[in-house]
Design a protein that fits this description.
Elements: E1 4-15, E2 18-29, E3 33-37, H1 44-51, E4 59-64, E5 67-69, H2 73-76, E6 80-83, H3 95-105, H4 110-123, H5 139-151, E7 157-161, H6 169-184, E8 188-192, H7 196-200, E9 204-209, E10 212-217, H8 219-224, H9 235-243
Parallel strand pairs: 3-8, 3-9, 6-7, 7-8
Antiparallel strand pairs: 1-2, 1-4, 4-5, 9-10
The structure holds adenosine-5'-diphosphate and magnesium ion.
The site of magnesium ion has 4 residues, from helix 1.
Length: 254
């Protein structure tokens, strides 16, 4: 298996005259959990959408699982699970029907969809909601369903755009236990988050600012960037240092 699962080089995406992605070179390795953080509008969603072939870059290259994207995306599509930022479930379908719909897209048999779907619903404590219409679910339940739909075809690479946003703390912890268990069975995960305690739980973290990958490394490596100026810097301090102008947080480190 290729050691690098996702590689972007000098990636650029323009929306009109705005550079939403500005020469981003990013590498995600097999088996890691890579977290993208950055203020709203920094370009996290745009970057993920280019990695899954939904947006064509203006310049630069994207390679996923050894294939150029978007050109050869259909070849690897079945190996990727993408959970978009907005709930990607059909409101007028039930939980079971949503799973059936997504499973069918990936050419799964009904029996496989039901078996694996039931396993996922049980893991997510949603087995009693199989026949509930999605528009009757709570926000957290919709998010769990969206994750279940993403995982149904057992993809090895997960691209999760703010998978835990708005979840209550217990559910957020449950999602992370789930991510770690997926990771321990060989899944590579690229996710975006606004929660810095989650960034701390990633193997490596990329910090985005104004379309640029302003810094990346392990949580320890990122903290070391501040360690000359701050004793035992926190991820919050690193985040503010990298992504905000000094006046927003009262200066501190250079
Ligand atoms: N389809 C689009 N058309 C025009 N501008 C867009 C579009 N999608 C994103 N943008 C702009 O690109 C920038 C990056 O957005 P986005 O990738 O959604 O950031 P993030 O996910 O980090 O919040 C923002 O300035 C946003 O307004
Ligand atoms: Mg976003």
């Amino acid at each position: 298996m290729a050691e690098v699962v996702i590689e972007t080089s000098e990636l650029v995406k323009l929306f009109g005259s705005r550079r939403a992605i500005d020469r981003v070179s990013l590498r995600v390795k097999t088996g890691e959990i890579y977290g993208l953080v950055g203020p709203s509008g920094a370009g996290k969603t745009t970057l993920i959408r280019m990695i899954c072939g939904l947006l064509r870059p203006n310049a630069g290259k994207v390679t996923v699982l050894g294939h150029p994207v978007p050109k050869e995306f259909p070849t690897i599509e079945a190996r990727i699970g993408y959970m978009p930022q907005e709930h990607a479930v059909y409101r007028d379908l039930t939980v079971a029907e949503n799973l059936l719909f997504f499973g069918r897209i990936y050419g799964m048999s009904r029996q496989k969809i039901v078996t694996h779907g039931n396993e996922l619903l049980a893991l997510m404590h949603m087995d009693n909601l199989r026949d509930q219409r999605a528009d009757r679910l709570s926000g957290g339940e919709k998010q769990r369903l969206s994750l279940a739909c993403t995982l149904l075809h057992n993809p090895e690479l997960l691209l999760l755009d703010e998978p835990t946003i708005g979840l209550d703390p217990a559910l957020r912890i449950a999602f992370w236990e789930f991510f770690h268990s997926l990771n321990s069975t060989g899944h590579t995960i690229l996710l975006t988050t606004h929660y810095l305690d989650e960034a701390e739980r990633c193997d490596r973290v990329g910090m985005m600012k104004l379309g640029k990958l302003a810094a990346d490394g392990t949580p320890e490596q990122l903290k070391a960037l501040l360690s000359k100026d701050v004793v035992a810097p926190s991820m919050e301090q690193v985040f503010l240092h990298i992504t905000q102008p000094p006046q927003r947080y009262g200066g501190g480190a250079k």
